[in-house]
Amino acid sequence: MKGLFASRQALAGLALLALFALVALFGPYLVQDPTAFVGVPLEPPSGAHWLGTNGQGQDVLAQTIAGARMSLLVGFAVGFGVVAIGAVVGTAAGFFGGLIDDGLSLLINVFLIMPGLPLMVVIAAYLPPGPVTIAWVLIFTGWAWGARVIRSQTLALRNKDFVSAAIVTGEHPLRIILWEILPNQSGLLVSSFIGATLYAIGAQVGLEFLGLGDVSQVTWGTNLYWASNDAALLTGSWWTFVPTGLCVALVGLALGLLNNAIDELSNPRLKRETAYERRLRAAGVKPGTATAVLLERNVPVVPAIDAAEPVGGE
Amino acid sequence: MSLLEVSNLRIDYITEAGDVSAVDGVSFHVEENQIFGLAGESGSGKSTVVQGILRLLRPPAAITGGSVKLLGKDLLALSEDELRRVRWRDASLVFQSAMNALNPVLRISEQLTDVMLAHDALSPPAARERAEELLALVGIDPGRLDSYPHELSGGMRQRVVIAIALALRPKLLIMDEPTTALDVVVQKEILAQIAELRQRLGFSVLFITHDLGLMLEFCTHIGVMYAGKLVEVAEAAQIYREPRHPYTQGLLASFPDAVADQAELEGIPGSPPDLLHPPPGCRFHPRCLHVQKRCHAELPQLFTLSGSHRAACHLLSQV
Amino acid sequence: MNLSRASSKLKSGLKFVLRRLGFYLMAAWASITLAFLIPRLMPGDPASAMFARFKGQLKPEAMDALRQAFGFSDAPLHQQYLSYLGHVLRGDLGISISHFPASVNTVIGGALFWTLLLAGVSVVLSFGIGTALGVISAWRRDGKLDRFAPPALIFLGAFPYFWLAMLALFLFGFELGWFPLGHAYADHLTPEFSWAFIGSVLKHAILPAVTIVVATLGGWMLSMRNTMISVLGEDYISLAQAKGLLSRRVMWIYAARNALLPNVTGFGMALGFVLSGSLLTEIIFSYPGQGYLLIQAVRSLDYPLIQGLFLTITLAVLGANWLVDIAYAWLDPRTR
Fold this sequence. Notes:
The complex is a heterotrimer.
Chain A: H1 2-6, H2 8-30, H3 60-96, H4 98-113, H5 116-124, H6 131-158, H7 161-168, H8 173-181, H9 186-209, H10 220-229, H11 242-266, H12 274-283, E1 292-293
Helix pairs in contact in A: 2-3, 2-11, 3-4, 3-6, 3-9, 3-10, 4-6, 5-6, 6-9, 7-8, 9-10, 9-11, 10-11
Chain B: E1 4-15, E2 18-30, E3 35-39, H1 46-53, E4 61-70, E5 73-74, H2 80-86, E6 91-94, H3 98-101, H4 108-119, H5 124-137, H6 154-166, E7 172-176, H7 184-201, E8 204-208, H8 212-218, E9 221-226, E10 229-235, H9 236-241, H10 246-253, E11 303-306, E12 309-311, H11 314-317
Parallel strand pairs in B: 3-8, 3-9, 6-7, 7-8
Antiparallel strand pairs in B: 1-2, 1-4, 4-5, 9-10, 10-12, 11-12
Chain C: H1 2-41, H2 46-54, H3 60-70, H4 77-89, H5 104-139, H6 144-158, H7 161-175, H8 195-232, H9 235-242, H10 247-284, H11 290-299, H12 303-331
C-alpha cells in the first residue's frame, strides 16, 4: 500500500476518483433539479446553461452532475458484489480442490465464455427496469471474472508452508480461509474490485443506453439514452452526449491508472527504469539490446595486475 | 595475448534508490586450455561478471568501467552488430537452467541450426547435418533432433544446451552454474563429458558455481569473489592448499571435505553486505575474524603473493 | 520411429482440441438451459405477463408458435424443457413478434452476415495491430511508443465503445461529411457482386470498424506488452541474444511467439466482451447487424428475438473460441 502512494499514476487515479466521489455525494445539492424543464430543447451551451440543454429542455450540466451518484453507486456496488462472490467461489474452488474445484471451475469457465451483453439483455428484459435490476444483472454476469483470478491465487497459496501447517494441525477450513488465505490476497482483491467496478460502470452505461434502465431516472447511461433518442447526432447537438461520455471516461481512466499502478507494484519489471534512462541520456549513450557501456574515464586507474604466466593444461 | 582478459570491470545497477555496485573492479584472465572457476556466495557478482562479459545484462545494469578483451577485441567498444558477430563464434554460454534456457515452443533442431545459419554461410540441410553430429557428440540420439524441449529429460536438455554452446566450436565456453538444477549423478556425468570434450576439441572454460568442492575438482584456476570484488585468485591446488584471504579460508572451512578430517564445519559469521551501501574500506571487514584498523578505511588491492597467486587483503601486504 | 512420434503428437493435439470441444458443447447446453430457466425463474411470472401483453395483438397461431418455442404449456417442467430443447436443436427459435410473421431464424440470419463482417474484421485487425504494437513497445522500453502509447490507450479504452462511435459519427459523418451516417450500404443499391456495391459496403464499414479498433486496440497492446516484458526476462531470450542471432529474429521468433500464447487465450476470453461492445457500436451506426436487432427487440419486448439473439451470439462466441483453441494448439507444441 505504501508503494501505491509513491506512484504518480496511483495518486492521479486516486485524486480523480476522490473528485468524482465528492461530485456524486454533494453535486446534486449544488445544481438545479436535473429533471426540470428549464429552456428551449437542444440549446447550445450559453451563460445560463453552461453545457446547454438536452432534447427535453433539461440542463445538461445538472444532469451530468446528478447522474454521477447513481452511476458510481451501482458501479461500486457491483464491484463489491463481484469480488465478494468471486472470493467465496474462488477460494472454495482453490482450497478444497478435487470434485468441488472441478465443478466450480466448470461453472466459472461457462460464465466467462458467455458473452455478457446478450445475457444481460435476456435477464434485464424480464425484470422491472431500474438500478437494482442492473446491479443484480451485472453481478450475475460478471462474478466469474473475480472468481477466476482468486481461484488461481488460492491454489498458489494453498501450497505455501503456512497453509499446509495450518491444515496439518487440524484447523477448521473456514478459519484457514478467513485468517490465512484471504488476508494474503488483499492486493488481488483490491485489483479485482477495481477491474470489476470498471466493467460495471461501462456495462451499466451500455445497458441503460439500450433502454434497459429506468429511463425516468437521471444516470449517465440514461443521459446517453436520451441523447441518442432525441437524435442528438442528427441535429449536431454534441453537448448532450460529450460531457457524460467524458465523465465515464475519466472515472474509467482513474480506475485504469490505479490498476496499472498495482500491476507495476506486483511486477516490478513493468516499471520504467527512470534513473537508468536518465543516466544513459546524460552520457549520450543510446540504449540497445546489449548491456550499456558507460565508461567514466576519470575513474582512478587501479595499478595494472601482473599477468600470470599461462599454466598449461592439467 | 590472453584468450579472455577482464580488467577492472565495474558493473552497476542504476536504480532510483542509488547505484548498486554489483561488480567492482574485477580483473582476471583466462588462457588457452585453462578451466577458470569463479567462486562465491550467491549475490557475490560472479554471474553478473560472466553475463556482463557477453553484454547480456539488461537494464538497469550498465558497465561503468574497465575493459573486456576477447581474443584481443575489446567487447565494450563494439557496436551491437559487431558484438552480434563475435558472440557465440568466439565465446558461448551454457546457462544455469536448461529448463529455462531452451525456448519451449521451438524444436531442438531449430534452436541448434539457427545459430549456425546466423554466423556461417551454410545451407539448411548442411546445418541440420551438423546439428545431428553435435547431438551425437553430447551423447543424444540424433533422431531426437526434431523433439521439443518438454519431450526431453532434464539431463538431456542440459546436454542439448551444451551442444548449442559447441555449435560454432568457440575458443571459450562460459558455464554459469551449468549443473545446479540436476541431480548429483547426472551432474557428474555431464561434467565428465565436458572434460572429455575439452580434451577432444580444445576449448577453455570459464566456470561458475557456488559449489566449491566441484570447483576444486574441475578447475585449473580459481578466482574467489566477495560482494562484487575479486578477493583471491590462484591455481586450484594453491587455493586448496594455502588459501590466503580470510574469506577464502572461511569458504573452504565451511564445505565438507572428504579428504582432510575436519572436526566440524565452520561457517562465516554475518551475511554479505548491502551493495547499495557497501561498507567502506575492505568489503569483507564486518565479517572478518582478523579485522584491523586500516580495513575499515582502506580498500585493499589485489597483489601478487607468488607466481599466479594473488589476493586482496591488508593482512598479507603487511609482511 | 519419427513417423510414429509425429502421429502420436498429432493425436494428443487432436485430443486437446476435442476436449475443448466437449467443454464448448457443455457451455452451449448451459446457455440454452439458462435461456429456458430465466423466464421461469423471474419474480411475478413474467411468462404469463409476456403472453398477456401480446394477447389480442397476435394471431392465435402466432401465440401458439411463441408458446411452443418457449416450451410454455401446462405440461410438467421437465416435459416443457424437453420440447424446448427439441425446438432449439432443430434450429427452430420461434416467431419474431416485432417482425411477425417472420421466424426468428430468418430475422437473425439476415443480420448475421453484417455482424460477422464488421465485428470479425475489426476484432482481427485490432488484435493484430495491438499485438504488434505491444511487441515493439516492450522491445524498445525507452522508445516513444512505450512512453506515450500506454497512458493514451488507457484513456481511450476508458470510453464506452458506443460513445466513441457517437463522437466519430458526429465528427466525421455529421460535421465533416466524410462518411455516411448509417446503414451497411447506400440505400439505392441492391446487394450484388459489383464494384459499386462492395465500395459502398467498405465506405459504410470504415467508420464503425475504426471505432471498434481504436476502442479495443489498447487492451491488446497493453496485455501483449506486459507478457512480452515478462518473456524478455527469460533465460531463453538471453541465450538467443548470446547466440548472436539477428535482433529481428530474437524479437519475433523467440520473444513474441512465446508472449503470444497467453494472449491468444485472453483473446478467446475477451471475444464475448468485445463483441458486446461492437453490438452497441452497430446501434449508433444503424448498422443492420445483431446489435441493431437487439435494440429493436428490447424496444418492442420481442422476447423470442431476444432469446434467439442470445443463443446465436453465444454459439458464435463459443465457435470462435474453438477456432482460437485450434490456433493455440498449433502455436504451442506442449498442448500437442
